[in-house]
Amino acid sequence: MEDVITEAAPPSRLLEEDLNNFTQPSPLLPSPFLLFRHPQQPLKPNLLIIAISPPSLSLFHKFLTPQTLTASLILPELPFSNPNKHTLDFHSLSSNILIAAVRSPIPDVRAYAVADVLLSDKIQPESVIILDSIKPMNHRGMLSSDEAVAFKLESFAERKKVDGEKLLDGLEYYPSGSVVDGLGAAILGRCQILKIRAGLCVSWPQFDSSVVFLLKDLLRGLGEFDFGLSDDEVLKFGRSKDHVFQSHLYI
Fold first, then answer.
1. Fewer CB atoms near the end CB (10 Å): N or C, the chain?
2. What is the mean pLDDT of residues 113-124?
């Protein structure tokens, strides 16, 4: 006779998706919202730069001051004890250029919700540049911490522009078969839906002063930036924290 206590339970006659019908659905997370420093009309910059990667935040650090702060994007599900941990801050570089600084990672499950609020009726840019990092597990090919590389992806509206007019002119396209996910991909997808000119730059290593130099040269071509960074200031960003990584992602 079988021991009903120690014997493994028989397979369920219900499919796993059927079993989920008996569990309570997870509560919906509240929508992110924008908090403006002063009441004003919708922001309509010629260019919105979204700094997600650590090197891009280092590059723009001198512009990210309380005096230039225009608005913040709030994730209401997180505590308000430290606003810098859960806000995406908008800073006005000029009347035509707005910088969005992502100071801490946005969870992937919230990326599309953040992108919807970021590009809404309150913020309507003519063009968008997104500065993100390459995740090694998403890259098809070889990556080394000794060499700085950057690639681009574009919305259809940007891809129609001829060379010399592109936002990220001079960069090669992200290798076929490689993947981009998270907030950067969500914002690029939102730009595609809204038919906004947008370029997504992904760089590697994720932490390295050489990438700061690379981005500095890339954005200098836009002709409206004066970073005022000396080589010594850029080098304060430090050497790479990324270990040597070799990726073989094939789809």
1. N
2. 93
